[in-house]
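Below is how a single chain appears once it has passed through the pipeline. First comes the sequence as given, then the structure the pipeline wrote out for it. We keep one example in the README because the format questions we get most often are answered faster by looking than by reading.
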Amino acid sequence: MARYGQSFKNRAVGRLLPPESASLEEVAREVGVGVWTLERWRSEALSRPARERAWTAAARFDAILTTAALDEAGKSAWCRANGVYPQELADWLQSATQALAAPEEARASPQQTRQDRERIKELERELRRKDKALAETAALLVLSKKVAAIFNRDMGEDE
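Resulting structure:
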């Protein structure tokens, strides 16, 4: 019998529970686990208190979007219904904002891009030069072996 880790189970069950609420058959196909096993995992997860349930990244993002337009009282009511602290919701919002901001900050400046292009051209020139030198050295080596073979053969005939 296969054994699955708790994090794997939590991710699979997280897909089954709201807000994502995917069908059992769909999740079973995606994760490669039987429908009955998923049903058992879901019933075990639902028997635990709401605070202990796992939230997938998609579910956290959906929660942020759902509660964005709500006032404080509405957010609090939503949090109570879904077993989430308002501070957790704020943390999820902050981490989503940081994740969305990171690619923009990681983008290279035009000056850096130009320097990178120049460096690439320089390295390509150096690589071509070294390839030519290696080919020349190989040709000289082959020629020197042929010359040595010719003179060794000629010396053997003179004796």
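Helices lie at 6-16, 24-31, 35-47, 57-68, 72-82, 86-106, 110-158.

See the next section for the split statistics.
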